[in-house]
Amino acid sequence: MDIRQVDMAALTAAARAASRRWRGVIIHHFASPWARDYRGRATWEGVWRYHVRTRGWSDIGYHWGVGANNDLWLLRHRDAAGFQGPLNAFGAHCVGYNATHAGAVLAGNFDEEDPHQYGYRMLISSVAAFLQARKLKPEDVHFHREFDNKTCPGYNLSLWTVRQDVGRAMGDAATGLPHYDPRPPVPLYAVVIGSMVIDCSPKIWEQRLYVLAEPYCEALGAAIPGGVHVHDSGYALAEALTAGIGGWRLFYAGPAPERMYHRWYPKRLEWIEEDGGA
Predict the structure, then answer these.
(1) Which run of H or of E encompasses 42?
(2) Contact, 89 vs 10, CB < 8 A?
(3) Among 13-22, 160-169, 214-223, where is mean pLDDT lowest?
(4) Residues 87/79, Cβ–Cβ less than 8 Å
(5) How far is it, in rounded angstroms, from Cα 17 to Cα 59?
């Protein structure tokens, strides 16, 4: 385990020395543990054990991390080829971008917690230092949710605001950045349960939602409930499948209004009300 606490000068030096041709940085958060439970090295070692011993990765997935008390950690030093050094190893944080974008993580659950109380200032400073060392721009900062069906790094962080703050930290006016927070496109019909957008080819028939039963239930980690009729095509009534799986609630299903393309899943209850119900 090579994780180590550093200061900004050490992070900057590692970024300058890295031979990998980084094109940007992708910001993440934890679903767990929360920032209020942050314990410094013990927290990072716990994440390392989960990534390496449970998930089987070569090292912790993120290149550097910021703790809830504004401490700074160089995390990932190894990949499948062995020891590469700080900010040099192939990442394990965002499928399709691990070779081109460094991964930074703010310790906490920022769907629920306020990042400005838990390390936000150091996150901005560290990202700005990395970009300056690599001759990159604020526009090269991304959120994990741009590339996956996740809220990461949390509802309470705005990409546009982070880019603006990083630009200011770099000494730029950061003017001219587009005022938007890009999300993946929302399909015409979407099935959202909990925090997942489920790929189950939803269809509407007689104003009722039908889904491919097997992928729908597989996504929930459950068998198709007994007594639910599955058509020869593989489709079944979504509400019947959901009702048979305890603890799950269908948050949204149906034609997405135009403004839904600027929403992020999972649907919040107030969004359902705003959009006229599900």
Answers:
(1) helix 41-49
(2) no
(3) 214-223
(4) no
(5) 20
pLDDT score for 245: 63
The number of beta carbons lying within 10 Å of the beta carbon of residue 20 is: 17
pLDDT recorded at residue 268: 37
pTM for the model stands at: 0.66
**Distances, alpha carbon 7 to alpha carbons 242, 244, 257, in Å:** 50, 52, 47
**In 187-256, beta strands by DSSP E:** 189-193, 196-197, 203-205, 208-212, 235-237, 250-255
| Residue whose entry in the numeric block shows the structure tokens 């958060």 | 29
Examine residue 33 and say whether the peptide bond preceding it is cis (omega within 30 degrees of 0): yes
Q: What is the pLDDT of residues 209-235, one digit of tens each?
A: 788 888 888 877 778 888 899 998 889
Which CATH code is given to the segment(s) 4-169? Answer: 3.40.80.10
Helices then strands, each counted (H, E), the chain: 7, 14
Give the position of tokens 């880019």.
163
| CA nearest neighbour of 89 among 101, 78, 81 | 78
Here the tokens at position 187 are 């399909």
DSSP string, 52-97: IIIS--SS-S-SEEE-TTS-EEE---EETTEE--TTTS---SSTTT
Residue where the block lists tokens 């230092």? 129
pLDDT reported for residue 154: 86
Two tokens at 34? 């929360």
The continuous run of DSSP H or E covering 87 comes out as none
Assigned token pair, 152: 């990461």
Long-range CB pairs of 174-179 (<8 Å, 24+ gap) are 174/138, 177/138, 177/139
Cβ neighbours for 4, distance < 8 A, ≥ 6 positions apart: 73, 74
What single DSSP character describes residue 173?
Answer: -
* Contact status, residue 95 vs residue 147, Cβ threshold 8 Å: yes
